Amino acid sequence: MIYLVFVEDVIRRKLLIDGDGTGDDRRLTLLLKAFTRWSNTFGEPLSEIKSAEDQLLDQLSQCEYIYEKTRIASKMNEQELENYGKLATNIKNEIEQTKDEIQSAKEKLQEAKIFRKNRMEYEVIANVIDQHPERKDTHQKLTAIKKELGNLEEVKQMLDSKIEMRRKHFHVLVASLYQLQAILDNEELNEENSHVNISDDEMDTFE
């Protein structure tokens, strides 16, 4: 009698835990059939009772095994999804940071282009000064202008290089984000297919 109550309690737990999928329903059906067969063997020969009991215990063990296997797989998938979520967040943050850096570099490059445009005016002024008797302060201004032009050219080259590097980095980050999304979609599809395949393949032996 105590054993019968124990079996009924196990069945109720299985209904609460595993009764939400087609494979789980099938396992429960087989378990209930085994339980019904076992409960109907009271008064039968000992060999019949033993056979029905063994089949019932096999069904219970199978349900416990499938449940534990599914629980572990689900926990691993949740951990992977969490890791992918963190990675996706980091990539998005890097993309935003890269966008800001590119925008800042574009603004600086625009300033450098303006300075470069004015260089022609500086050269015209320098030519006019060269054609007239030099004064000390005029010579110093000319020297300063030439130095500034050299500095502006260096700044422009540096900004061109930096923008090109940031642009490549941005493309890499965007590609990584698309690849991550594809991995997440594939993981979700594989989890669904794996759950259905495990349920069908492992329970066929008990039909």
UniProtKB/TrEMBL annotation:
Coiled coil: 81-115
GO biological process: mRNA export from nucleus; mRNA processing
Keywords assigned: Coiled coil, Nucleus
Pfam (any one): THOC7
Subcellular location: Nucleus
Main localization of the protein described in the UniProt heading: nucleus
Domain of life: Eukaryota
Cellular component GO terms, alphabetical: THO complex part of transcription export complex
Family: Belongs to the THOC7 family.
Designated name of the protein: THO complex subunit 7 homolog
Lineage of the organism: Eukaryota, Metazoa, Ecdysozoa, Arthropoda, Hexapoda
